[in-house]
């Protein structure tokens, strides 16, 4: 995970930055998705493919689960394919949006290591994200963002910060588009901090089905993420 936030906490799919808004009580959602990045040292498909599901058992919160298959294709090395990093967590909206204040919520989760041979060197322990997210709506416009602290144990690893912000617009009942700017500090002793962007959106095919998509790259530390993407088939239930 050097310089590129793995597409795991898809937070606010299709972006890496998340929002604080939970699902309505006793409803759920399911994503069947693919995600990956191309860097100077090879290509990694963090989800090839992956599944994400969220369900609200209580008001203003939901439980969260992600399980991907991961393909690692290093330049000049052997490819590896297997179970990727499994993610378990919960989202909890602490404060609901009003005319003068934003939604505010937390979304802590655990990331369990990928299968041996698929994970990056040194990534063999459980990681923890402790974030806080905010959101404000104004007509067809929505902005959300915030950040969190990653606890990243392991030889040569560093704990690190992620921050991001998204601005998106609802163009019709079927289509929204948005852009994201994010930054993360170094996650290893030999890594550098990174700044990047994504652009994407969502298209409703027929309720409750959607197609979600985004693509982007790093602006700073470009070699760690020359191109990244996310694409998903989504169903609410």
Number of strands: 14
CATH level 1 class label: Mainly Beta
- H/E topology pattern: EEEEEEEEEEEEEE
User: CATH superfamily name?
Assistant: Autotransporter beta-domain
The 3D shape can be described as globular
Q: What would you say this structure looks like, in words?
A:
- The protein has 237 residues and is mainly beta.
- It has a single domain, classed as Autotransporter beta-domain (Lipocalin).
- Strands 1, 2, 3, 4, 5, 6, 7, 8, 9, 10, 11, 12, 13 and 14 form a 14-stranded antiparallel sheet that branches.
- 0% of the residues lie in helices and 59% in strands.
- The chain is globular.
- It has no helices and 14 strands.
Keyphrases for this structure?
mainly beta, 237 residues, 14 strands, disordered N terminus
